[in-house]
Specification:
The structure holds two protein chains of two kinds.
Chain A lengths: L1 E8 L6 H7 L9 E9 L5 H8 L2 E5 L5 H14 L4 E4 L10 H10 L5 E5 L9 H18 L11 E4 H6 L9 H11 L4 E5 L6 H6 L5 H17 L1
Parallel strand pairs in A: 1-2, 1-4, 2-3, 5-7
Antiparallel strand pairs in A: 4-6, 5-6
Helix pairs in contact in A: 1-2, 5-7, 5-9
Chain B lengths: L1 H24 L5 H19 L2 H9 L7 H43 L1
Classes of the chains: A alpha/beta, B mainly alpha.
Chain lengths: 229, 111
């Protein structure tokens, strides 16, 4: 059983090395772990640092957005013939020990997609983030008609077969909502597991702008309308 | 309501003028484009602040029988068409650019 950990990164030279070094070398039920970093057109040394510590480092020549970087990473995971694929943020906000909780439902063959939910236990999360996440959950539900407690979580796990079925086209942050839409469209077995988030000044500054909601809404609607054709 | 529309027009004018000025300073925009947007938005702001100017101008051209509603309707259709064109073009370009950038990234992996 092969696990690929996909990490999209943009201007993360300060933390990407530490994140990659902290990745687990062994997980129960997993024979091989491959880390894949997709540098989304960074202006700093993110790519150079990633090349040093990741198994695969891909450089996008332009900063397209987290959606394009994630999809590129998922494509590499497919080429690597990974059985389970985990996505996580590069800013160090996700705890690597949550990876094993995330892949458990896929390892037991009961689920196709698992979302790591920060909202199951949002103690310590700034109010503005809680409000923003709930707003995005509602927007995602209205557009894609699938409820999740944390639609914008960057920490997810997919089975190989689920990834094969999903058709992703996002460029930016709308990727998270599009994935929720694909779970529903493909009738994938899905669950959420609680994850903890490490909030530092660095990760706070890196988070999504609440005004991004408008952008995600319009792009999600465009994706939804496009899908109905 | 009219007062609010005037305030919004001024705010939008300031936003557009400052943004194009910054783009011009960063050499992202030419002087010609900077002047075009500032003059265009200045005209819009003047008409928004003094709508009576539009009626006077209309009658000076001998179009007393054409109501302001007709002009508004034409403007609405025209602007909606431009919005549609810009949306389609930017959406298509974004997709093509994304595909190109992804292909280049993945090509490096294959090599």
């Amino acid at each position: 059983m092969k696990l690929a950990i996909v990490i999209p990164a943009h201007n993360e030279e300060k933390v990407i090395g530490a994140v990659l070094k902290s990745l687990p070398k062994k997980i129960k039920g997993i024979d091989e772990i491959v880390s894949i970093v997709v540098d989304d057109g960074s202006e700093d040394r993110t790519y150079e640092v990633a090349k040093q510590y990741a198994d695969r480092a891909i450089k996008l020549v332009l900063n397209m957005g987290v959606g394009a970087a994630t999809i590129t990473g998922l494509e590499v995971a497919k080429k690597e013939k990974a059985d389970i694929i985990v996505t996580m943020d590069a800013d160090g906000q996700h705890r690597v020990k949550d990876i094993q909780h995330l892949i458990k439902p896929i390892l037991s063959d009961s689920k196709d997609v698992v979302i790591g939910s920060r909202m199951k236990n949002h103690n310590g999360m700034p109010f503005v983030k809680v409000f923003g996440n709930w707003t995005m959950n509602v927007i995602t539900f209205i557009v894609f008609r699938k409820w999740t407690s944390d639609s914008q979580s960057g920490m997810k796990a997919f089975s190989k077969s689920a990834l094969k079925k999903m058709k992703l086209h996002s460029v930016g942050y709308e990727i998270c909502s599009e994935i929720v839409g694909e779970i529903r469209r493909n009738k994938l077995a899905f669950t959420e597991v609680p994850i903890e988030v490490v909030y530092t000044d660095y990760s706070r500054a890196k988070g999504q702008d609440i005004l991004n909601a408008v952008n995600i809404l319009t792009k999600s609607i465009a994706i939804r309308i496009g899908r109905q054709k | 309501m009219i007062f609010l529309a005037k305030i919004i027009s001024i705010i939008l004018f300031i936003l557009v003028a400052s943004k194009t000025y910054l783009d011009y300073k960063k050499k992202k925009e030419t002087l010609g484009m900077f002047l075009f947007w500032v003059i265009a938005w200045a005209i819009i702001a003047v008409f928004a602040l003094k709508p009576v100017l539009f009626i006077e101008l209309n009658s000076q051209f001998g179009n007393q029988n054409t109501g302001i509603g007709t002009y508004l309707g034409i403007a609405f259709v025209f602007l909606f068409f431009i919005t549609y064109r810009v949306y389609v073009k930017s959406h298509r370009l974004e997709r093509q650019l994304r595909d190109l950038v992804m292909k280049l990234g993945l090509r490096d992996v294959e090599e």
